[in-house]
Amino acid sequence: MSDRRIPRLLQTPAVVLLLIWMLIPLGMTLYFSFIRYVLNNLRRPEWTSPSLSNWRGVGNYEFVLNSKDFWFAVQNSLFIVGSILFGTVILGILIAVLINKTFPGRGIVRVLLISPFFVMPAVNAVLWINMILDPVLGLNGLAVGGINNLIDNLQTAPVVGGFFSLWPEFEPISFRATQTSAYAVIIMVTWQWTPFAVLIFMTSLQSEDQQQKEAAILDGASAWSQFRFLTLPHLGRPIAIVVMIQAIFHLSLYAEIEIVSRGNGNKNLPYLIGEFANNNIGAASATGIFAVILANIIAIFLLRMIGKTLME
Amino acid sequence: MGRIVLEQVTKSFGETQVIPPLDLTIEDGEFAVFVGPSGCGKSTLLRLIAGLEDTTSGKVIIDGEDVTQVSPSKRGLAMVFQTYALYPHMTVRKNIAFPMRMAGIPEDEQNKKIAAAAESLNLTDYLDRKPGQLSGGQRQRVAIGRAIVRDPSAFLFDEPLSNLDAALRVGMRLEISEMHERMKTTMIYVTHDQVEAMTMANKIVVLQAGNIEQVGSPLDLYREPRNLFVAGFIGSPKMNFIEGDEAAKHGAHTIGIRPEHIEVSSDAGTWSGVVGVSEHLGSDTFFHVHDTGLAETITVRAGGEVSFKHGDRIHLTPRQDVIHKFGPDGLRL
Ligand SMILES: Nc1ncnc2c1ncn2[C@@H]1O[C@H](COP(=O)(O)OP(=O)(O)OP(=O)(O)O)[C@@H](O)[C@H]1O
Ligand SMILES: [Mg+2]
Asked: Which of A88, B56, B135, B227 has the lowest tally of Cβ within 10 angstroms?
């Protein structure tokens, strides 16, 4: 009896601390989400301090659900996370398979490949949006300008000139625009997180059984069949890990969205929370609770999926 | 059909030559066993035949056709690996179906062959399991099933039983021999267990450092080993080698006498010595005899009921008709 009580007693402080650590912020958020609480209001100064007498019930939730940006932000969050996952997993597998072969300079190539992962997200966003994606001064503008010049020159060339004069002038894509700012974020985050996927897939590829491959070669499997039937199933678990970790990380993207377009045409839930928090803490808290619910739904969904691949 | 001929085949890894020029013919329907100590090139030779390694020079000929440059899957051979090399994510059924699926064989024909293979290998109850849920012996049978359904012109086995326990090894050994009797397909079997070699083979190929020391039927090798290496390698326990005066009496540099060809007695015999360790197997007893003045130890086999204690003086009489004589170069005289 008592030999059980002592370890429990010793664990208690840690458990209590953890509970406080997690429950207090969540409790505060819940509390704020049910009251009127704004930072600035000249007509109703009593709303500027949190108090139970400002009880609003589900009013904040209704306000958030009816605000024009909420459903857009949910959709956009899912779109951005889904696209990044798709991009990093496909690119990660391709690159990992390519550099798994031995070739001269492999060590250096590996270090270079990992390096994007060590760039700070904000720096990453500034670099991409100004140096690469900028329609005038960035690589994007320069490349399109170069292509246009080339076509101009070809139009006066003797034989093929006629063909090229049918071509239009190309326009560089502006990645800060309402329609494209989400793509800019997807591109830069995919670039930054592909190394993470490569790293994990590479480790897994190195533990692949070579005799299985030889058996498959004798069984008449082409390189593609070997990849499809041996390598891909072997990568099932690492793919699940990469998807899981990244989904949780990218639901909370913020810096990239802020730097690319200040949320113009491209909001996710954290960004919306940030906007509400400029003044309306009650609405921001309610959005926060929605974000927690969304994250849980996605986590449960992914856990199911991973569970299934592990069972197979 | 499955007649496999190696002509002046060599293999080097970088600078080191693992297989010096080697000629070997394995006739259609034969059960050939490659034996030799670890690292002598048995697996390499098998992989050269399978096409998993490229020859450095020389030709591999299967049924009269030069396949040296032909890809492994086109050679019509099936291989069973020591580690089974089953596909871990597929069920037993899918594992066995895999080569047929790659060859584009229609589904109903696949199913027929799977059913037949599973039947003959006692795998019917396990078809929907994953390899991870099978015992070692069952995995080995799945690997064999995957080889059978391809109807290969020859089977290649690389130490297929070395991961199994002793009892299972005996059982599988019989099953593979049985399979060879039934199918009459050429089989090449690599092992370093000379009991497997003796019991299964029609033809044993003894290798040392990539060289073929002798090729022949198990009894040929047992009765007339060509040199000291083969004499020492074939037979268990090992043949006793005696040099010096005793050998000179027989006009040889070295004489060899197998433990089972020496009579023991407590009072009289040609040689005498002191009993060291005795190993009682029930049916037989092996005595390790010291202080004979002939060699460090002489091993003798006696019946299970014969019993001498450690330190007893014992008299030995070799059977004169089965003494092997070798010259100073190690070759049989
Ligand atoms: N890929 C390789 N690169 C370099 N050397 C190799 C390679 N594969 C095998 N060898 C060498 O070739 C020799 C023969 O190897 P092999 O695997 O054929 O031996 P084996 O007879 O099958 O031995 P075992 O009974 O232990 O399996 C060994 O000395 C080994 O070190
Ligand atoms: Mg080997």
From this structure: B135
Gap from CA of B10 to ligand 1 centroid (Å): 14
User: Which ligand has the shortest distance to the CA of B41?
Assistant: 1
Backbone angles phi, psi at B328, to 5 degrees: -65, -25
Whether pLDDT at B302 is above 60:
yes
A217 touches chain B (CB under 8 A): yes
Other CB atoms within 10 A of residue B34 CB: 27
Q: Are strands B298-303 and B16-26 parallel, antiparallel or unpaired?
A: unpaired
Domains in chain B, number:
2
Within-domain flag for B21: yes
Residue in B52, B129, B188 to test binding to A, most A beta-carbons within 10 Å: B52
d(CA B175, CA B173): 5
Assess whether B103 and B248 both reside in one domain: no
pLDDT tens digit string along B139-159? 999 999 999 999 999 999 999
Asked if the structure places residue B331 within a domain, the reply is: no
Question: CATH number for the domain including B206?
Answer: 3.40.50.300
Do B75 and B45 fall into the same domain?
Answer: yes
State which of B228, B248, B281 marks the end of a domain.
B228
Structure tokens at A241: 């890990």
Q: How far is the CA of B46 from the centre of ligand 2 (A)?
A: 9
Q: What is the DSSP string of A187-222?
A: HHHHHHHHHHHHHHHHHHHHTS-HHHHHHHHHTT--
CB distance A204 to A236 below 8 Å: no
Q: Residue B158's closest CA among B203, B210, B193, B134?
A: B193
Shared-domain flag, residues B75 and B223: yes
The interface predicted TM-score of the complex, written ipTM, equals 0.85
Is the predicted pLDDT of residue B168 greater than 80, yes or no?
yes
CA-proximal residue: ligand 1, atom 6 (nearest)? B13
pLDDT digits (tens, 9 = 90+) for B169-199: 898 899 999 999 999 999 999 998 888 999 9
Kindly give the parts of chain A with pLDDT less than 50: none
**Domain final position from B197, B228, B259:** B228
Residue of B nearest to A310 (CA): B89
| Helix, strand, coil tally for chain A in percent (to 5) | 75, 0, 25
Domain residue ranges in chain A: 67-124+187-276
For chain B, the residues whose C-beta falls within 8 A of a C-beta of chain A are 50, 52, 72-73, 77-79, 81, 83, 85-90, 98-99, 102-103, 146, 150
What CATH fold (topology level) applies to the domain A67-124+187-276?
MetI-like fold (1.10.3720)
Confirm whether B260 is domain-assigned: yes
Task: Determine the Cα–Cα distance for residues B100 and B77; give it in Å rounded to an integer.
Answer: 14
Distance between CA atoms of B154 and B28, rounded to whole angstroms? 8
Provide the 3-class DSSP secondary structure of residue A264.
Answer: coil
* C-beta of residue B44 within 8 angstroms of C-beta of residue B207: no
Domain holding B43, by residue range, is 4-228
User: Of all protein residues, whose CA lies closest to atom 18 belonging to ligand 1?
Assistant: B41
In 3D space, the residue among B44, B37, B47 whose CA is nearest the CA of residue B16 turns out to be B44
Q: What is the 3-state secondary structure (H, E, C) of B232-274?
A: HHCCCCCCEEEECHHHHHCCCCEEEECHHHEEEECCCCCEEEE
Rounded Cα distance, A164 and A168, in Å: 9
Q: What is the pTM of this model?
A: 0.81
Q: Are residues B261 and B201 in the same domain?
A: no
